[in-house]
């Protein structure tokens, strides 16, 4: 990546800003729950900034992609601060809309009402953001007939006992999609961060008309839960 000195300076500045914010949180008597959530977010921002710098090929590419990644995290953080949890359906549809992909036109979304805890939601939003960006730059969204079907299901009832959440991202209408020649940021999010943080297993298939991505993770309390009526549950406090 070009201009490593500038990147190192940005990283050093972010580390200093984060240290000052952590001290401020400790000194002002911030509630434990809010402090813990902000610490998680700060840790994720540091990881995203550093990994973005390590995988970017140009400074312009670094800046452009970093902005989108930070925006994805910020949108979920706002929702989590408001409701305590984040709707999986809303998370995906919002990210698609940022890329001008409208549900019902070039995208279909189908699955039960699942609400994710803040940290899990931020990771999932980052993964969906990378899938969307890849589809715009290299896959189905770059073509007029391209689209995506996103489905998810929960094994078991997901309420009285933990089940497994399975999410499938299936692009259609692409042409000549092939595996990437290098492991960029998106691949590392999907194959490493989700595995480490959510105990997820991820399967990727680069078929000619688009990418297929399947994410399986346990729907345990620290990750999320299945709800009977998402609209009725929107303002409820998490268990």
From TrEMBL:
It comes from Methylobacterium radiotolerans (strain ATCC 27329 / DSM 1819 / JCM 2831 / NBRC 15690 / NCIMB 10815 / 0-1). Residues 34-113 form the Signal transduction histidine kinase HWE region domain. It comes from the Bacteria. Keywords: ATP-binding, Kinase, Nucleotide-binding, Phosphoprotein, Transferase. Gene3D superfamilies: Histidine kinase-like ATPase, C-terminal domain (3.30.565.10). The keyword Metal-binding does not apply. Its EC number is 2.7.13.3. This is histidine kinase. GO terms for molecular function: ATP binding; protein histidine kinase activity. Pfam families: HWE_HK (PF07536). The keyword Plastid does not apply. InterPro entries: HATPase_C_sf, Sig_transdc_His_kinase_HWE. It catalyses: ATP + protein L-histidine = ADP + protein N-phospho-L-histidine.
């Amino acid at each position: 990546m070009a201009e490593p000195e500038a990147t190192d300076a940005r990283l050093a500045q972010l580390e200093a800003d984060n240290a000052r914010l952590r001290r401020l949180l400790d000194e002002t008597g911030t509630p434990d729950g809010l402090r813990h959530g902000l610490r998680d977010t700060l840790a994720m921002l540091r990881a995203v900034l550093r990994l973005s710098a390590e995988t970017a090929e140009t400074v312009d590419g670094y800046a452009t992609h970093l902005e989108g990644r930070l925006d994805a995290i910020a949108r979920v953080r706002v929702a989590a601060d408001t409701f305590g949890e984040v709707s999986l359906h809303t998370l995906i549809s919002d990210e698609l809309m940022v890329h001008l992909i409208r549900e019902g036109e070039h995208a279909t979304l189908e699955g039960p009402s699942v609400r994710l805890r803040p940290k899990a939601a931020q990771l999932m939003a980052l993964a969906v953001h990378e899938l969307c960006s890849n589809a715009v730059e290299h896959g189905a969204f770059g073509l007029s007939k391209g689209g995506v079907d996103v489905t998810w299901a929960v094994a078991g009832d997901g309420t009285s006992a933990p089940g497994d959440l399975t999410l499938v991202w299936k692009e259609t209408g692409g042409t000549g999609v092939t595996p990437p020649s290098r492991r960029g940021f998106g691949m590392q999010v999907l194959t490493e961060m989700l595995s480490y943080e959510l105990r997820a297993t991820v399967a990727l298939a680069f078929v000619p008309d688009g990418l297929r991505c399947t994410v399986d993770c346990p729907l345990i309390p620290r990750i999320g839960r299945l709800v009977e009526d998402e609209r009725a549950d929107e303002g409820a406090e998490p268990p």
